[in-house]
Amino acid sequence: MGSPSSVPAGFTLIELMIVMSLVGILSVVLLPQYFRTKIQAEAAISIAETLSFAEQCAVANKSGIAVTVQQPFNGAARICNGQAVRQINSRTWSGDAAGIQCLGVTANGSQRRARIRVATDGSLTCRFI
Prior knowledge:
The protein is an alpha+beta fold. The chain has one helix at residues 13-63; strands spanning 67-70, 77-80, 86-89, 101-102, 105-106, 114-118, 124-128. It is 40% helix and 20% strand.
């Protein structure tokens, strides 16, 4: 039978230091990408929500049947009836969402909100502000 002192118990200090350095390296590499992805998802949700309201307005403009939509940005009511151009603003997102797209337009890093313009004929255009 082996003596209790011949069986290694626990980790050595060097093993713990190696694990800690690997965790540190991984966090330095992965955390910035995680936060960037989180902001891009927030922006994509905001744009999709605004686009949904804009599409409702576009259908109302094409059909001539009035509908009231609320802006996600501030809750203001907009009446869409084909008689006026409407601009619907998205909610503001928290950081750099460079590369996110809205109706074929790509955002740069300094833009924090999308504005979708609904023309009287129902056509949609998007720009970042």
